[in-house]
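Reminder to self: tokens first, then the designed residues, so the page reads top to bottom the way the pipeline ran.
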């Protein structure tokens, strides 16, 4: 079971997320909140999300990466509110490949373990940091970034908040090599040959 401290930090951090000082990508709404289609009855359950209970009650021991989202899709009350949250469980040695959040900045708060993180700005400058439990790192909106757990035996647990009800995520490897771009175009772009591009696709589990 997760420690009392982790529970408390998660709770405080989830409250902090509601005042996340990032310009939200959501449109301003003209009502107090937005109801999903065909919804008329609203009570406290509408404003409550229980999908993180398992994360709180179980430590991050799984050998598989797990991201538990609390975005507009899972928590409809967030629609139009300009905020969402995710709990990220990084097994030892796991790399979250380079990706972008096209609609929101992200603020990562590391609760347990250690993470190596990095982002690349529009001048192609790389910024890196090694995070310890209690550290926070900002990923500006739209910039390519990644996370890596360098430990061989210790998982890491983090919470990420976003200034949008649905920040979206675009994996760079999957988008580039699995998005249907012609192999010849990719070969010319990466200054290599088609055979190499096809090998990369196979390694990523992509099919033509």
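Designed residues (208 positions):
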């Amino acid at each position: 079971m997760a420690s009392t401290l982790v529970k408390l930090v998660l709770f405080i951090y989830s409250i902090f997320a509601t005042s996340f000082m990032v310009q939200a990508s959501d449109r301003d709404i003209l009502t107090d909140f937005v109801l999903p289609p065909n919804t008329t009855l609203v009570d406290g359950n509408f404003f409550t999300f229980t999908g993180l209970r398992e994360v709180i009650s179980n430590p991050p021991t799984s050998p598989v990466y797990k991201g538990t989202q609390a975005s507009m899709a899972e928590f409809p009350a967030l629609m139009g509110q300009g905020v969402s949250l995710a709990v990220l469980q990084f097994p030892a040695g796991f790399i979250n490949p380079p990706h972008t959040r096209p609609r929101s900045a992200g603020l990562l708060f590391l609760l347990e373990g250690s993470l190596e993180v990095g982002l690349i700005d529009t001048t192609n400058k790389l910024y890196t940091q090694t995070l310890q439990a209690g550290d926070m790192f900002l990923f500006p909106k739209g910039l390519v970034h990644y996370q890596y757990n360098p430990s061989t035996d210790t998982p890491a647990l983090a919470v990420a908040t976003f200034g949008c009800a649905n920040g979206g995520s675009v994996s760079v490897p999957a988008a580039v090599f699995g998005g249907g771009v012609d192999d010849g175009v990719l070969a010319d772009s990466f200054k290599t040959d088609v055979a190499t591009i096809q090998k990369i696709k196979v390694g990523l589990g992509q099919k033509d």
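Helices lie at 4-17, 53-57, 172-178, 183-189, 194-203.
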